[in-house]
Amino acid sequence: MACCCLMSQNADTASGSDTIRVVIADDAPAVRRGLSDLLGEVNGVQVVAQTEDAPQTIAAIQTHTPDAVVLDFRMPGGGGLAVLEAAKNVVPKPVLIVLTNYTEPGYRASCLQAGAHYFLDKSTQFGLVADLIRELAANTRRQAGPKPPPQPVRILVVDDSQTMRRMVMSVLQPLGNVVFDQAASGLEAVERLALAPTGLMVLDLNMPDMHGFEVLRFLRQHQAYKDLPVLVLTTRGDDLSKTEALALGASAYLTKPFSQQELLDCARKLLGT
Predict the structure, then answer these.
(1) Above 60 in pLDDT, residue 11?
(2) DSSP 8-state symbol, 78
(3) CATH code, 11-144
(4) Which fold has domain 153-271?
């Protein structure tokens, strides 16, 4: 099989400090071309390599130390999981975007647990790749410019009830200098963590697709999230659930219905404000 690691002309020398360097990995030439054309329209983005199997992709990551990798789940030579495992040892770790037609929940969970930041459906979310890379490029340009004023602390509220999410955000609004993000499931929470630095997660336990205990286990197994404060807010008031949550790394444990002042005080303590 011919090597398909295709570099842009003068890719290494042309890249500036504010340029987002991307590796595209897919065994379908049409998909690689489509992604390359899509990302070519994003300002400040450079595709430094295109690969067609797992070994080529791992080599490209090691050679180019890209800022982002867009990869298929099914590829020759070990597939996307092999690439995700290899990327764990890369410093700094690139943003890993799995784009695939194999969207079964089991594949999704395996990729996220192996280190993927995003798991996208190739048939319906192809264009979202450009949005994610565009946001990464914008963040990089902001970091390269004059030092901005202190950014608000991001609080991620994870609960399958929209009403409960709104209530929690309303109670925590007096913290000041905070912004809120929301997730309606455990898997969505894991995906949204990669969008921006998060200062606090408020986490329900009983959720579809990925239970709160699984989210805690995922967080504490990954270097980037092992110290993230997590406030569990749940209807489960039994001692066994509380003990298990704290053992898995929860920073605090409150039960619903909750005291608004207790929730606010607990969040303030975890944020150190």
Answers:
(1) no
(2) T
(3) 3.40.50.2300
(4) Rossmann fold (3.40.50)
